[in-house]
Design goal:
Elements: H1 2-5, H2 15-27, H3 32-35, H4 51-62, H5 68-88, H6 105-133, H7 136-161, H8 168-193, H9 198-225, H10 235-238, H11 242-251, H12 253-262, H13 268-280, H14 283-302, H15 312-322
């Protein structure tokens, strides 16, 4: 979703070279087992969009910090993001095996073991970079963000496994926090590198929090509109997606509980029927509008502050979120 919303071609002209340096910094420390010939290009690493390093580098460049230090910190934030993605997919839908058939228990166990090890590896490397940089404010910010992200992941895991029985919107909030917290950290870190005024740092942080909400809701809409290999519709996640929560708000808790219980069997036709219901009840439209509202709130954080006037890239991201999205892959107009 992030890459479709913010393709590389839409990023600032300076970002190509900078992102290449960030990527080289990340790859330089990868274990040999991951880089070994025959394993393919990073077979154990989930795709991670360049949005977080771009946000950090945009903020740091705006305040006059565009050297190796900002590249190292952008790599650190991206490594935290990769670690989070690796840990998030633990216990997720079984991937296909090497021959295209169902994954075996042995292969799955091997992948999940590597996910744990690599996730811990990336987080440790990121922590080392941030601590080695020595900025106490950034160190404390990273610790607070990591704690918040870990708490959110624990909530998500509890709901996914059925151990949590609280209101479903709590799970959605945790899923949104996972996105928002790191986006806000990236912007605050970039601003701190350039010694930005505190109120501008807070404005950028607010921008990141709303941008994260925008992305989370829009990704939920996309999961319903475009289920497929590159957009896995795991019923355990869809139960707590924003459109299904809109059904709960519009039709009442019983409607949500009925839909959620029907999804337990993971039958494709059931998901299709619920998708049709969400369209009919306006849930997809309402969710898309909620996403656009958060994009608007992100834009507001940049307005009325002369010190942020030069951040046109951030302004463009928010303005793009406000505009109606293109048709979905089935050729239908998106909500």
């Amino acid at each position: 979703m992030e890459d479709r919303l913010f393709p590389l071609s839409s990023l600032p002209a300076w970002s190509g070279e900078a992102l290449d340096l960030v990527g080289r910094h990340i790859a330089a420390g990868l274990p040999e087992a991951v880089k070994a010939p025959g394993n393919g290009p990073d077979p154990f690493l989930p795709g991670a969009s360049p949005l977080r390093p771009v946000l950090l580098l945009s903020a740091s460049r705006h305040y006059g910090c565009a050297g190796p230090r900002s590249i190292r910190m952008a790599a650190a934030v991206q490594m935290i993001h990769i670690a989070s993605l690796l840990h998030e997919r633990l216990g997720g839908p079984a991937p296909v095996g090497p021959a295209g058939g169902p994954d075996t228990q042995k292969v799955r166990h091997h992948r999940e073991s590597l996910d744990i090890l690599l996730g811990d590896f990336f987080f440790s490397r990121a922590s080392g970079i941030i601590i080695g940089d020595g900025d106490q404010s950034i160190i404390e910010d990273m610790i607070r963000t990591s704690e918040g992200s870990a708490e959110a992941q624990a909530v998500i895991a509890g709901y996914r496994d059925g151990r949590e029985a609280g209101p479903p919107d709590r799970c959605f909030t945790a899923r949104a926090d996972k996105v928002s917290l790191l986006l806000a950290l990236a912007l605050r870190t970039g601003a701190q590198l350039g010694v930005a005024p505190e109120e501008e740092k807070e404005a950028l942080s607010g921008y990141g929090l709303h941008l994260g909400r925008f992305l989370r809701i829009l990704q939920d809409v996309d999961l319903w509109l475009n289920p497929g290999p590159d957009s896995p519709a795991d019923p355990r996640e869809l139960r707590f997606s924003h459109p299904l929560l809109m059904l709960r708000e519009i039709e009442g808790p019983a409607a949500w509980e009925k839909a959620a219980s029907r999804m337990a069997g993971e039958a494709p036709q059931v998901l299709g029927e619920i998708r049709a219901l969400l369209r009919e009840r306006g849930c997809l439209e309402n969710s898309a509008q909620a996403a656009r509202s958060h994009a608007g709130l992100a834009l507001e954080r940049l307005q009325g502050r002369p010190g942020l006037a030069g951040l046109e890239g951030l302004r463009e991201i928010a303005e793009r979120g406000i505009r109606p999205p293109p048709p979905d892959r089935a050729g239908q107009e998106r909500p």
